[in-house]
Write a structure and sequence with these properties.
434 Repressor (Amino-terminal Domain); 0% strand
Length: 181
């Protein structure tokens, strides 16, 4: 089991951010996840467990739409792995006429941008704020279309590569402009 305190703090921060983006209290989220409010608090605190990984972490991850592998992925410096049930159906129409599939295809590039900035020296806090802003934008799509439901937890893959190609930055800006119409 990973015993790096920074890795566990990051896991706790991602748990907390995902819950707060849903607008849920710890108590309400605990009900959703089928765990106690104290279990949610402990997971978000980000302390290294004394013996073994608490089984409640898997329930919390699942309630965020993450697969059980997400916990280890995050502790290893990666991103949550979406559960198959969390990915939006192909072809769901969004507000601007685009499809959920198009939005989901763009998401890895958006998060790759955040990772590249971190690799080039941006603060982890700035990356978390960027991730939260992206989630807020996705949530605004969800609120406008009852048929569309996304979450950071549902799709934030760990991309391997050399960063965001220049033409991807243009695609991201175009997508953001289309959403503003």
């Amino acid at each position: 089991m990973n015993r790096d305190p920074e890795a566990w703090m990051r896991l706790g921060r991602l748990f907390r951010n995902a819950r707060e983006l849903e607008g849920l209290t710890r108590k309400d989220f605990g009900v959703k996840a089928g765990v106690s409010e104290k279990a949610v608090y402990n997971a978000e605190k980000g302390e290294v467990p004394s013996r073994h990984q608490p089984p409640t972490l898997v329930k919390i991850a699942a309630a965020h739409g993450w697969s059980p592998e997400s916990i280890q992925s995050i502790l290893d410096g990666g991103d949550p792995v979406p559960s198959q049930a969390a990915v939006a159906p192909e072809g769901t129409k969004g507000r601007s006429g685009g499809t959920s599939a198009q939005l989901l295809e763009l998401m890895p590039r958006v998060y790759e941008f955040g990772r590249l900035c971190s690799a080039l020296g941006a603060s982890p806090k700035a990356r978390d704020e960027f991730d939260a802003a992206v989630q807020h934008l996705i949530d605004s799509v969800s609120h406008r279309s009852a048929q569309t439901s996304y979450s950071l937890a549902a799709y934030r893959p760990h991309a391997l590569g050399e960063g965001v190609p220049a033409d991807d930055a243009e695609a991201i800006l175009r997508a953001m402009e289309e959403d503003g119409r």
